[in-house]
């Protein structure tokens, strides 16, 4: 068995929050079950945010309460404030994710708060969640570039990662929110952080807007990162970050990792079933290369069978 890599699945949250179509609650529940059956062990289900801001996830309480529980599968949800925390707790979740931006302009657009205000709220939410016995993951957005402020000095995320860890989050996921990062930058950010942060407390959350997500993961792997966020089918984006289309596709990540001898515990065939299903639900072709190649292979096989009269 190869070295274990942890894949954190965000499609039902980061993916669906950005789709025009509202996926019915029962379909979201079925998809959660399909992802768990594919071997994913860390699944972000939804966001306990304002339904006015993210209407696609307005059914968060139902989804979190009714997602099929499986041994070894940890479900989580995004939480912006105490109201969200109470909802997540009432729905029976054991883990939440708090989120903030490394840049002021994105912070204002995304949560209507400055970075300092966000830190104060996240501190309170994290403390309350830990007191309730929940695990808390942290996200830091716009680490590799901001849609409003442009390039980001790596000193900024470095300082904020420390503040998030000091609050008590068990891991900080570094977000390339609008998919502008390149491998050299990933190496710079990670090498700077590893001087005083254990790599086991960091994850990479790459959007594939410009096709660099997998290359960025490889740079992270080479630096010793072992946790990566991705979305089945390559669903995803951020509605308050123009251009943030598509998270790294989980299939593409798994294909590369398994091919390199890492062990993800995920069945590609089963994952593809979930992606095909969600593709019908959102009514569009999804960007995952592995998914497209599988669909193309099947179509060719069908055409061959038809030509030969079977
Ligand atoms: P606000 O308007 O400043 O706050 O929004 P508010 O406290 O005045 O509340 C406004 C309304 O929202 C009120 O309702 C509240 O009850 C309600 P009203 O009285 O107007 O009817 N509300 C809530 N409802 C349900 N659940 C809650 C909640 N809190 C307040 N928890 C707020 C502030 C944070 C609520 C708002 O800005 C918001 O919901 N933002 C969500 C933004 C979001 O979800 N963005 C996408 C996720 S982040 C992301 O995708 C990046 C990531 O993937 C990493 C990366 O890629 O880098 C994580
Ligand atoms: Mg994201």
Strand content: 5-15%
Give the strand line-up of the largest sheet. Answer: 3-2-1-8-7-6-5-4
Number of separate structural domains: 1
- Helical content, roughly? 40-55%
- Considering the protein shown, what is the CATH homologous superfamily? Aldolase class I
Give the SSE order as H and E letters: EHHEHEHEHHEHEHEHEHHH
Q: In the CATH hierarchy, what is the class?
A: Alpha Beta
**Bound heterogens, unique:** 3-hydroxy-3-methylglutaryl-coenzyme A, magnesium ion
Mean pLDDT: 95
Per DSSP E runs of 2 or more residues, the count of β-strands stands at 8
Taking the sheet with the most strands, its summary is:
8 strands, parallel
Number of helices: 12
List keywords for this structure.
310 residues; TIM Barrel; 8-stranded parallel beta sheet; 12 helices
Quick recap:
This protein has 310 residues and is of the alpha/beta class. Helices cover 45% and strands 14% of the residues.
Describe the structure.
With 310 residues, this protein is α/β, with parallel strands linked by helices. It is built from 12 helices and 8 strands. The chain has a single domain, classed as TIM Barrel (Alpha-Beta Barrel). 45% of the residues lie in helices and 14% in strands. It has an 8-stranded parallel β-sheet. Helix 2 packs antiparallel against helix 11 and helix 8 packs parallel to helix 9. The mean pLDDT is 95. Bound molecules: 3-hydroxy-3-methylglutaryl-coenzyme A and magnesium ion. Magnesium ion binds next to loops. The site of 3-hydroxy-3-methylglutaryl-coenzyme A has 26 residues, from helix 4, helix 5 and strand 5.
């Amino acid at each position: 068995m190869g070295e274990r890599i942890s894949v954190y699945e965000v499609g039902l949250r980061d993916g669906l929050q950005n789709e025009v179509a509202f996926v019915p609650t029962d379909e979201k529940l079925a998809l959660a079950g399909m992802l768990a059956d594919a071997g994913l062990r860390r699944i972000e289900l939804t966001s306990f945010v304002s339904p006015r801001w993210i209407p696609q996830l307005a059914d968060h309480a139902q989804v979190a309460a009714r997602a099929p529980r499986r041994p070894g599968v940890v479900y989580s949800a995004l939480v912006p404030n105490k109201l969200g925390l109470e909802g997540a707790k009432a729905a029976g979740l054991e883990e939440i994710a708090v989120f903030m931006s490394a840049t002021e302009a994105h912070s204002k657009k995304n949560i209507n708060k400055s970075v300092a205000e966000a830190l104060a709220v996240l501190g309170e939410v994290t403390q309350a969640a830990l007191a309730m016995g929940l695990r808390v993951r942290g996200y830091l957005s716009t680490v590799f570039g901001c849609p409003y402020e442009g390039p980001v000095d790596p000193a900024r995320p470095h300082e904020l990662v420390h503040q998030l860890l000091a609050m008590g989050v068990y891991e900080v996921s570094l977000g390339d929110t609008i998919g502008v990062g390149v491998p050299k930058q990933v190496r710079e950010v990670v090498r700077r952080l590893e001087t005083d942060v254990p790599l086991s407390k960091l994850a990479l959350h790459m959007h594939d807007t410009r096709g660099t997500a997998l290359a960025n993961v490889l740079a992270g792997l080479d630096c010793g990162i072992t946790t990566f966020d991705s979305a089945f089918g390559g669903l995803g984006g951020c509605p308050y970050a123009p251009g943030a289309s598509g998270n790294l596709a989980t299939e593409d990540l798994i294909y590369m990792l398994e091919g390199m001898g890492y062990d993800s515990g995920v069945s590609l065939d089963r994952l593809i079933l979930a992606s095909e299903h969600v593709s019908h639900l959102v009514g569009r072709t999804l960007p995952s290369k592995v998914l497209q190649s599988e669909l193309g292979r099947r179509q060719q096989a069908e055409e061959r069978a038809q030509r030969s009269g079977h």
